[in-house]
Amino acid sequence: MSYFRAKPTLQASDAKLVSSLKSLQNFDDVASLLEVTPKHLRYILFEKKVSGYYKCFDIPKKSGGSRKIWAPQGSLKILQEKLNKIFSLTYKPNITSHGFVKDRGIVSNATVHLRKRHVLNFDIEDFFHRINFGRVRGVLKSFFGMSWDAATVIANICCYNNVLPQGAPTSPIISNMICFNMDMEMRKLAKKHNCHYTRYADDLTFSTTRQTFPSAIAHLDEERVVYLGSKIQKILDNNDFAVKKSKTRLNNRDQNLSVTGITVNKITNVERNYIKKVRAILKCLESHPLSEAQKIFESKYYSKPGKKNAEIMNVVKGMISHIGYVKGKQDPIYEKLARRYNRLAGIETLKVGEAFLKDWSQNVFVIEVGYDNSGVFDPQQQGTGFFLKDVGFVTNHHVVKEYIDDPDIYEIRVHRSRYNKKCFQAKVKMYCKERDIAILEIDGFNITGFDYDLINYDGQSIKVIGYPRYGHEDSLFVDQGTIVQYRSEFMRTIYNKKTQELGLYQERIICSARIIYGNSGGPVINTRGQVIGIATKGFSNVSKKEEDDDSSAASYLVKIGDVFDMIGEKEESVPSPVSAI
């Protein structure tokens, strides 16, 4: 392999890369792992000035000031990107770490602290600069079992001016490795005092539902200055970190509770002023020509002398996307802002409303239960079903009751209506009559399905999706509403582990969205598009005229958590061809 023919992407298999990483002994081994010649690697590290590989620039902080970024260039960047991939194949991040981790982020970090009574936030000062060459070398040796010589070579690739540079591809994952033991100690301390702990990069958070925040972790003095407990301080000292005192705060639920910039008092939310600013920028764009709106924008918000200013359309698009990321893209506020932006842009660049129908139509099906009548399928019962991640095809028990009672006569057929007319036969895999849940088995499908969330609460925005009163090639029905009440129903035949007797209460949800006959078994989603329940009972007609409905009717849904309770009980019982609980 010549100097110039080294490929920017790794060619070896993942298994080979992991095996090679754990057996690194010397300089040549590192070069081989990175698929470059030793001569090439030596040139990058020792013959060319390392400073020539880094570009330095500042990015503004939301809190004011700027953050210095050292971004690698050229061959060094390629080596770091390769190392980042190799590290990620074997390194498993701590459960408390949410920064720079796949499928985690500021929202998952904030969600841990949702609806707590007290929240403590504090930052580590000069986070990346406190991680020096020696610490990087040591953690590579301890985590991967490589020799000191190999760890020294890799540390040279990853460090600049003796520290971990903020902006390098390898810095995030290495910083999480460095903090692994600290996170374990912090989590242990939090658990001891009935608290929750998370870390997002240099931002550490503790929260609790206790009446008072544990003084062993932190306390407020008479002047409301926050002091961290001695055990917290000791953990930080032992890990060579210091606290940025100006960023330390301890608040209770009567105040604004925020974690990584997200409000967590009741729901994960963005600050009101942030949304007000977005609305103001959109109003400016709607009221003035683009060039004039840009000038107003620069004079009020962003102005950097001597530098090219950010374009107003790009900035507001990013701000709206952030709102959608935090609140969910089914959130009414996000949808209104996104639609306003799309009208201004003249093209639907932000996904809203009906744009999600394509995704939903892949996972939501019409269910018809009937029998063969002289070679023609005659449906007697109709409902809705959907694929759920980690579970399979879910619907209500009452939708497929006829099949369960007499499978020799009845059959179940499912299809996607106008979105795909192909019909599939289904069988019942598992059911619970009292919970009104059934899981079906359908051959020929490899669908991941909807994600889910076990959290639900009063006032939560939801959408009901399905095929009410299905006719012929109907489109998906979607109705929006909120959770308005919780009601308990007694299940007489379900075993109660607490009382060790038969009889258990099931808490069902009533929502303001309209659940209609035929919608039963369909998904009810939150603002993130995650299923929180199954549409179960409601009205007889789509019409909202009073005379068309029973005055006592209401829209009920079964919590998605009940599906997992049913599965758990099934796994503890003796298996049967069609499992009933």
TrEMBL record:
CDD domains given in the database record: RT_Bac_retron_II
Keywords, ordered alphabetically: Antiviral defense, Hydrolase, Magnesium, Metal-binding, Nucleotidyltransferase, Protease, RNA-directed DNA polymerase, Serine protease, Transferase
Listed EC numbers: 2.7.7.49
Molecular function terms, GO-annotated: metal ion binding; RNA binding; RNA-directed DNA polymerase activity; serine-type peptidase activity
Entry annotated with the keyword Nucleotidyltransferase: yes
Signal sequence bounds: none
PROSITE patterns from the UniProt entry: RT_POL
InterPro entries in the record: DNA/RNA_pol_sf (IPR043502), GrpII_Intron_Splice-Mob/Def (IPR051083), Peptidase_S1_PA (IPR009003), Peptidase_S1_PA_chymotrypsin (IPR043504), Reverse_transcriptase_msDNA (IPR000123), RT_dom (IPR000477)
GO BP annotations, alphabetical order: defense response to virus
Occurrences of domain Reverse transcriptase (ranges): 40-264
Enzyme class: transferase
Reactions accelerated catalytically: DNA(n) + a 2'-deoxyribonucleoside 5'-triphosphate = DNA(n+1) + diphosphate
Family: Belongs to the bacterial reverse transcriptase family.
The protein's name: RNA-directed DNA polymerase
